[in-house]
Design goal:
Layout: E1 9-12, H1 18-28, E2 32-38, E3 52-54, E4 60-64, H2 65-68, E5 74-79, H3 84-95, E6 99-102, H4 108-111, H5 116-119, E7 127-132, H6 147-153, H7 178-201, E8 205-210, H8 211-217, H9 220-229, E9 246-251, E10 254-259, H10 263-272, H11 287-292, H12 294-305, H13 310-320, E11 324-326, H14 330-333, H15 337-341, E12 345-350, E13 354-359, H16 383-389
Parallel strand pairs: 1-2, 1-6, 2-5, 6-7, 7-8
Antiparallel strand pairs: 3-4, 9-10, 10-11, 12-13
Length: 396
Amino acid sequence: MPGPLSHIRVLDLSRIMAGPWCGQILADMGADVIKVERLGEGDDTRRWGPPFLKDKGGNPTKEAGYYLSVNRGKRSVELDLKSEEGRAAVRALAAKSDIVLENFKTGTLDRMGLGYEDLKKENPGLIYCSITGFGLSGPMAQDAAYDFMIQGMGGLMSVTGDADDAPGGGPQKVGVPIIDIMTGMYAAIGVLGALANRTETGQGDHIDLAMLDVSVAMLANQAMNYLVSGKTPVRRGNRHPNIQPQNVYPVADGFIVLAVGNDGQFRKFAETIGQPALADDPLFATNAARVENLPALETILIAALAHGTIDDWVGKFATAGVPSGPINTIDRVFEEPQVKHRKMLRDIPHPLAGQLKQVVSPLNFRNAPLRFDTAPPLLGQHTHDILAALDLEETL
């Protein structure tokens, strides 16, 4: 059975991460995603390596790991948007598409005659999603942006990392391009919302999505902590600002993560570490009390946890229903029995490597299961097929 979006065509004019991440989400759900790439160059991320994929003979290719992480399931066409022929091809593709994704600098596609107002003349139902650093309006609308700078500008790095006076303290970025990823997620949600609205109204839409806006929206509880209290949140390392105990704790052979989420779990936790009286102590009996008295609580917990191994404690806490786990390196993630059971890592046929390992979508549909059988495309791999279908092959 085809995926839930197998009736949808997406024209993906975006590159790097946020827009392509959205496109990959849609492709995983069965959409026909046509990735338009610069003639002879392609997406910048094709060159963002090493590492580069190795072919069947063990030789490095030009397919960077970064590019491979975000372009699964798409078809690639090379076009020169500086030429009238290239722009004509984009217009022809947009006329037969449901969604356009783009992350050009504000105003660039308008000047090319490829803006929303231009393309909707031929396709009134078109859903056009513009992804930029700062949005289509405002004093920074023309400025370029990358994930790292937005993590800082949007406040995320002010609450990530240890305090300035702690060893290794100071602002830290998240270990993956989280703003790009979340912007791609919001883009996917936005275009699907517009599709649902089009079903009712017959009208398309233009979505204006800014990375800085996404970063601000992602502040979530930290933003509300400030708005409610008037106190600016600070970096607390791995300590949760509102729920305790939640931290990384040393044990005999390494570290474990504890994520005790409520008073009932804390009682089970206290019993498991051999300190049942903690759950009735006024200093620790409620979450609010534990947050207020965290230094005293952590002195007790660190001493108690020091006498067991990672496997010992994780096993005991699992039996007791207390959320905990090891801090896996990436290689160990793929050895987790639960990750294996969920088949999050799949082998996909690839024209150069034979097989390509891919971390796949976490979405599981009972009635419209997803398929993962199309690797990220080679540059221009589908140019002939796509243009021939538009009767444009001879003009380009």
